[in-house]
Design a protein that fits this description.
- The chain is built from 18 helices and 14 strands.
- It has 571 residues and is of the alpha/beta class.
- It starts with 9 loop residues before the first helix and ends with a helix.
Length: 571
């Protein structure tokens, strides 16, 4: 996408980048020296070629070959050295930016691990991933190429200008007409073209989005016989996109040729005025030749400046997004005097709890709930009504606004987060498995779990026989997306993981969507076993669970509507 966005606070970005670069200050110093030397050596060439030309005496046909060869071989030597140095420089810059990017990615990842759950609820996964991949890559490219290019350009422009002044200050005046002309033109065009490219990306985005919707909604479109209407909309979007492309490319491609024309104009003027000065013996042919070469060196970087500057701006904007993420507030540390939650009975109570995600909207108001050890609390209600909010509070992913949550009579805010979270086992609808062996996936919550313990947990979850039938048993690797395992088996694996943890309290989301009846019965049996002798909080979807519940919370439109046991509620 065409991200020609500017950073909001350039100073801040530079300060933060400097902090990274400063770690490798020796490499940076070497890079600066290499840049200067390599470009200076490159600037000597045109001067020497002028001397070689002056060794020819026009009109007399006499050539001082010794001098010509001397200067020509010097030129070759200087150019070779310059090339070697600039090769070393690019290798060095790639290493440097690699080190920086490694450090940056590490910082971002460490931050992601520390962030509170709330951050992930409020930001899209795609956005966060694009920080780690796209944005850091942009910074990387910019550091390794654009920066070098800018330094080289500055040296080349300044060096050429000084050399031209030395050769002939009068001819420099000719340049002063054409250079501002090409500068103003490129700036004007950049301003005109940038919004066109932005429109182009926006239109392409719309078109892609539309196509994606249509491809995934094929059945519905056919069921409602809406093909013609859809094609009409596609055609109009398609024409708009094509038009936006044409506009952007049309104006975008005009810049190059026009700038070339202005440069050639400047060359013709230099040649004409140079010839006049030559006739009056104010300049030699060699001087004119050197001057022409320097003028080309001088105007090259100036015309590229606009492009490089916009690339640097988008890199700075990308860096700013990365630093913003690194600066996010982590989950607050545990209070210094917080206690570890030791042996748990599993007595949970919510006393007058009020909470909301947005400062002015309380979702839960004055909730009282007491779950005795070994009891079952069912949480029911329509999707999106805030059932997960209660879980978020029990696990202390969020802190309550008012009131308190107690485990065995201790307020959860006085306990360390990790000991509180370890006291709960959790089985959610999103069966999260990672790439690794089945053993690793089951043993996930318990350090140093032995194979016996893992097998016992799998037996209780009723998935042991399935695992043994796999080619490598418990060492079978689950590939990403768990392709070699069905949805129901994934669910059973997460149940086995929760069994192994052997926590006194359990949070369970009992959604067994799209699995066949036999698997569903298995999952229900495993869940039953998992719930034995634990204090359970179940997001209930089945009547049978609700019937057995000691307490039912009915959540609707984010408010707790009523609670009580099934018998109380039926009477």
């Amino acid at each position: 996408s065409d991200k020609t966005d500017k950073p909001k606070d350039t100073g801040y970005v530079l300060k933060r980048l400097w902090a990274y670069v400063y770690r490798y200050k020796l490499m940076l110093l070497a890079a600066i020296l290499l840049t200067i030397t390599s470009n200076m050596l490159g600037l000597i060439g045109p001067m020497l070629s002028g001397y070689a030309i002056d060794a020819i005496e026009p009109g007399k046909g006499r050539v001082d070959f010794k001098t010509v060869f001397f200067y020509a071989s010097l030129m070759i030597v200087f150019y070779i050295f310059s090339a070697i140095l600039s090769y070393l420089l690019s290798v060095l810059m790639i290493r440097l930016s690699q080190k920086l990017v490694w450090k940056m990615r590490e910082d971002v990842f460490n931050k992601l691990v520390e962030l509170p759950v709330g951050y992930f609820d409020g930001h899209q996964v795609g956005d966060i991933i694009s920080r780690i991949s796209y944005d850091i890559d942009t910074v990387n490219t910019s550091l390794s190429t654009d920066l070098v290019q800018i330094c080289a350009s500055v040296i080349t422009v300044a060096g050429s200008f000084i050399m031209m002044l030395v050769i002939s200050p009068r001819l420099v005046l000719v340049m002063l007409v054409t250079i501002p002309l090409s500068l103003f033109y490129t700036r004007y065009m950049a301003r005109k073209v940038r919004p066109l490219f932005r429109t182009r990306s926006a239109k392409l985005g719309q078109l892609n989005g539309f196509v994606e919707e249509m491809v995934s909604g094929q059945k519905t479109i056919k069921a409602y016989a809406a093909e013609d209407a859809i094609m009409g909309r596609f055609n109009s979007l398609n024409s708009e996109t094509a038009e936006a492309y044409y506009q952007a490319e049309y104006y975008g491609s005009m810049t190059g040729p026009t700038v070339n024309f202005i440069n050639n104009l400047s060359l013709s003027l230099i040649t004409v005025f140079g010839a006049i000065l030559y006739l009056f013996n104010k300049m030699t042919l060699g001087n004119i030749s050197s001057f022409v070469q320097y003028s080309r060196r001088f105007s090259g970087p100036i015309n590229e400046a606009a492009n490089i500057i916009s690339e640097l701006q988008s890199a700075a904007a990308a860096a700013e997004r990365v630093f913003k993420l690194i600066d996010e507030a982590p989950e607050p540390l545990d209070a210094p005097d917080s206690k570890e939650l030791g042996e748990v009975d599993g007595d949970v109570s919510l006393e007058d709890v009020t909470f909301g995600y947005l400062p002015d909207r309380a979702i839960i108001k004055n909730l009282f709930l007491h779950a005795r050890p070994g009891s079952l609390t069912a949480i029911v209600g329509p999707t999106g009504a805030g059932k997960t909010t209660i879980i978020n509070l029990l696990m202390r992913f969020y802190d309550v606004w008012d009131g308190g949550i107690y485990v065995d009579g201790m307020e959860t805010r006085d306990l360390t987060r990790s000991s509180l979270r370890k006291a709960y086992a959790m089985v959610l609808q999103d069966t999260w498995l990672f790439e690794g062996s089945i053993f690793d996936n089951i043993a996930y919550g318990k350090e140093n779990a032995t194979m016996e313990e893992v097998e016992a947990a799998a037996k209780m979850a009723g998935i042991d026989s399935f695992i043994r039938r796999l080619p490598n048993g418990y060492n079978t690797i689950i590939n990403e997306d768990g392709l070699n395992i069905s949805k129901g088996q994934k669910q059973l694996l997460t149940i086995a993981r929760a069994m192994l943890l052997d926590a006194k309290m359990l949070i369970l989301d009992e959604a067994t969507s799209n699995v066949d009846t036999r698997t569903e019965i298995k999952i229900q049996q495993a869940m039953r076993k998992l719930m034995e002798k634990k204090t359970c909080f179940v997001i209930a979807h089945r009547l049978s669970t609700i019937r057995e519940a000691d307490n039912i919370l009915v959540v609707d439109q984010s408010n707790i509507v009523e609670q009580g046991s099934h018998k109380e509620r039926m009477s």
